[in-house]
Amino acid sequence: MRTEMLQKILNELRSSSGDIEGCAVISLDGLPIASSLMDSIDENRVGAMSAAMLSLGEKTSEELGRDELDQVMIKGKNGYILMVNAGNDAVLLVITNSAAKLGLIFLDTKRSAEDIAEIL
Q1: Are 25 and 6 in contact (CB under 8 A)?
Q2: Are the C-beta atoms of residues 108 and 17 closer than 8 Å to each other?
Q3: Digits of tens for pLDDT over the chain (120 positions)?
Q4: With the C-alpha atoms ordered 109, 111, 117, 120, is the resulting torsion angle positive or negative?
């Protein structure tokens, strides 16, 4: 039941914008909990890489006096990768194309992360 609810949130997030190419809920240990990713993406590898990025981001944020980490954003030639805390136990990963309207993506992602945190 919980996985189905998370999957519904991910599907709604992905359909909220044509700029979102994929999204996933990943545990802080790097394990995929639910995902809506392209077939070419290995969700286990994405989970492991996301956990490593979050850990590094948290340490960097604390070390540089920025307090608790809110999000990690990576920009590449083909788009953005956004990781946002989704409660104490998970992170929401969002993959967008390069034309993404980030303000709207941030808003939709934050709402989805709050919904996910309530479920987890």
Answers
A1: yes
A2: yes
A3: 888 999 999 999 998 888 999 999 999 888 999 988 888 888 888 888 888 888 888 888 888 888 887 788 999 999 999 999 888 889 999 999 999 989 999 999 999 999 999 988
A4: negative
86 near 117, Cβ under 8 Å? Answer: yes
CA dist., res. 111 & res. 114, Å (int):
5
- CA 115, 42, 71 angle in degrees (round to 5)? 40
- Tokens representing 81? 């990768």
Fold adopted by 2-119: Beta-Lactamase (3.30.450)
Phi and psi at 66, nearest 5°, equal -95, 5
Domain boundaries along the sequence of the chain: 2-119
Q: What's 26's DSSP letter?
A: E
Task: From 103, 107, 91, 95, select the one nearest 14 (Cα to Cα).
Answer: 95
